[in-house]
Amino acid sequence: MKAGVDIGELRDACEWVSAGESAGVDAQGFVNRRDGRVLLRGEGIDEDDVPDDLDDEATWIAVPSKRDLDLGRELVFRFVGEHMPNSLEQVERIFHKSGAYRRLKDLLDAADRLDQWHAYEEAAIVESLAQWCAENGLEPSAPAAG
To answer: In this structure, which long-range contacts are made by residues 7-10, counting pairs with CB atoms below 8 Å and at least 24 apart in sequence?
Structure first.
């Protein structure tokens, strides 16, 4: 039987890992293969709660970043190609300089596409994480009611 993983917790862990990667800080996430528990490690997280077997790959698997799942620049260009094809050249120029995501969001906001982008990105992340779960013997489940 596959361990059930709360897809909301997994998504949050993916965001944590991705934010750490972008900022150049250590931010890790792990999923317990047996019970689906999600564990975060990094700055601001109490290390007293880290299990002794965290380095056991038979029990724990590292949560991927959005980059690991090809959900960075590739996703942006897929969205723009599908929803704003006339802006592809502009977006290519945006990504040749630092601060690309801020400028991209300004462009999307000006085109009244920011909410559509957020929904598109969210769906792509959840879909990719569900696929990642399937590939790693885990079963994604709906977020727990809270």
So the answer is: 7/126, 7/129, 7/130, 7/133, 7/140, 7/141, 7/142, 7/143, 8/142, 8/143, 8/144, 9/38, 9/143, 10/38, 10/63, 10/129, 10/133, 10/140
pLDDT of 11-22, one tens digit each?
A: 999 999 999 988
Phi, psi at residue 6, to the nearest 5°? -65, 115
85, 71, 12, 10 alpha-carbon torsion, rounded to 10°: 130
| E strand segments, the chain | 3-6, 27-32, 38-42, 60-62, 138-141
Mean pLDDT along residues 54-69 = 93
Q: Which two tokens stand for residue 53?
A: 């077997």
Is the distance from CB of 94 to CB of 107 less than 8 angstroms? yes
